[in-house]
């Protein structure tokens, strides 16, 4: 029987809250189907790592935490069918088994999300030749408003497959997802400081020299943290915890910046003292994620790849001009374009620019300065990160917007899977 309880819900950062009528955790697919048939309004929550009100509801909130694990594997194709509630950090213990020997093609630096949550919002890592996680979905099962389950792939219900890999949970509930994986592999992580000017001049060459490359850029500091990941056969050299830890330093500097904003430029100068070149080697699932204990709120836009450096330069200039008090660096990454209707990377190789604000500070102090610039460069927002784009702006940004909305209306005419936030976003 499913677990049922009434509680206040909040996302990871605490910025989004709601009071669902009930929170249900079905034990299996059949229970899930019964719940869908019996309720008028439903939203599904994963780890709560989205910063938008994607799952906020005063109706029924569903957690798929009990519907987790690997269902089956295809060793010839290197694919695995995985229950939608599986957390990314749990996935490797299943895939690493000798009889399976698989790993995800790419991951971001947070691994707390459920697989369905990461897929549904277009969550991504970095790599000029690598898709977001949704781009590696080969098939999925979709539980529709009627309680029926539909199998979708490139050859079966192909329109729903094209739309449903990034659908914000608005078409139905993903129950099982088949991922295109690859044999397990090790990555060498290297972090060093690099002049911002050098990065801006050479990054489009460097992006082809590494499997993964990303930059952490501070508003006042002339050096940035450059992180590269490359495949290797070298012996494992596990990541060591610094003392004080990166998280401890980040929390301390964020607290000081919040209380004494004028200290921010001087605190950022400490980067050269605390960041030393480091190299680690480990299995990909150990290297991709990094500890994130300092809570924040985040905005992120995907900029056309040829505009990304100019956009970053303008954002940095604006942060300095407005003396914005945030110690968090901007994050600068590459993502390959795909064919998913509402993917922020639809038919567009992109540079992802992420803006963070410490959770105890008002995020609008920085987001209101930066967002007009990200939009000026024709950016598309990450669906799980804060943004203010309107229905009209989104329609202009997504060539398949109207096709998606027509399909959503067809699959869920009673809007069972929409909450007030999505109704505003989708229906205008």
TrEMBL record:
Keywords from the UniProt entry: FAD, Flavoprotein, Oxidoreductase
Domain FAD-binding PCMH-type intervals: 16-184
GO molecular function terms listed in the Swiss-Prot or TrEMBL record: D-arabinono-1,4-lactone oxidase activity; FAD binding
InterPro entries for the chain: ALO_C, FAD-bd_PCMH, FAD-bd_PCMH-like_sf, FAD-bd_PCMH_sub1, FAD-bd_PCMH_sub2, FAD_lactone_oxidase-like, Oxid_FAD_bind_N, Vanillyl_alc_oxidase_C-sub2
Gene3D superfamilies tied to this protein: 3.30.465.10, 3.30.70.2520, Uridine Diphospho-n-acetylenolpyruvylglucosamine Reductase, domain 2 (3.30.43.10), Vanillyl-alcohol Oxidase, Chain A, domain 4 (1.10.45.10)
GO cellular component: membrane
Organism superkingdom: Bacteria
Cross-referenced SUPFAM superfamilies: FAD-binding/transporter-associated domain-like
Protein name: FAD-binding PCMH-type domain-containing protein
């Amino acid at each position: 029987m499913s677990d049922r309880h009434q509680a206040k819900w909040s996302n990871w950062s605490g910025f989004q809250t709601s009071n669902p009528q009930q929170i249900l955790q079905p034990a299996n697919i059949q229970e899930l189907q019964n719940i869908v048939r019996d309720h008028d309004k439903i939203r599904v929550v994963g780890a709560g790592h989205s910063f938008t009100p994607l799952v906020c509801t005063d109706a029924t909130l569903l957690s798929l935490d009990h519907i987790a694990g690997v269902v089956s594997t295809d060793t010839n194709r290197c694919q695995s069918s995985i229950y939608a509630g599986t957390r990314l950090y749990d996935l490797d213990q299943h895939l690493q088994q000798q009889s399976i020997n698989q790993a995800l093609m790419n991951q971001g630096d947070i691994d707390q999300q459920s697989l369905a949550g990461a897929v549904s919002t277009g969550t991504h890592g970095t790599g000029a030749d690598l898709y977001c996680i949704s781009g590696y979905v080969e098939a999925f099962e979709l539980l529709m408003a009627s309680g029926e389950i539909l199998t979708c792939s490139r050859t079966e219900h192909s329109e729903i497959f094209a739309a449903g890999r990034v659908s914000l949970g608005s078409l139905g509930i993903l129950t099982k997802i088949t991922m295109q994986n690859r044999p397990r592999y090790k990555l060498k992580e290297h972090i060093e400081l690099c002049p911002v000017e050098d990065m801006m001049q050479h990054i489009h060459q460097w992006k082809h020299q590494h499997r993964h490359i990303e930059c952490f850029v501070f508003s006042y500091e002339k050096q940035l943290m450059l992180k590269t990941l490359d495949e290797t056969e070298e012996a494992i050299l596990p990541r060591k915890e610094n003392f004080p830890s990166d998280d401890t330093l980040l929390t301390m500097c964020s607290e000081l910046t919040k209380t004494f904003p004028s200290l921010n430029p001087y605190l950022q100068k400490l980067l050269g003292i605390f960041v030393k070149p480091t190299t680690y080697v480990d299995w990909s699932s150990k290297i991709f994620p990094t500890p994130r204990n300092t809570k924040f709120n985040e905005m992120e836009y995907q900029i056309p790849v040829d505009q990304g450096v100019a956009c970053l330069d303008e954002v940095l200039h604006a942060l300095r001009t407005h003396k914005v008090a945030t110690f968090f660096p901007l994050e600068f990454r590459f993502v390959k374009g795909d064919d998913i209707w509402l993917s922020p990377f639809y038919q567009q190789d992109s540079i992802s620019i992420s803006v963070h604000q410490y959770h105890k500070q008002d995020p609008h102090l920085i987001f209101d300065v930066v967002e007009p610039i990200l939009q000026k460069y024709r950016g598309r927002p990450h669906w799980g990160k804060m943004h203010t784009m309107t229905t009209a702006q989104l329609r202009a940004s997504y060539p398949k917007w109207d096709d998606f909305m027509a399909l959503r209306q067809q699959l869920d005419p009673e809007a069972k899977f929409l909450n007030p936030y999505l109704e505003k976003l989708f229906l205008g």
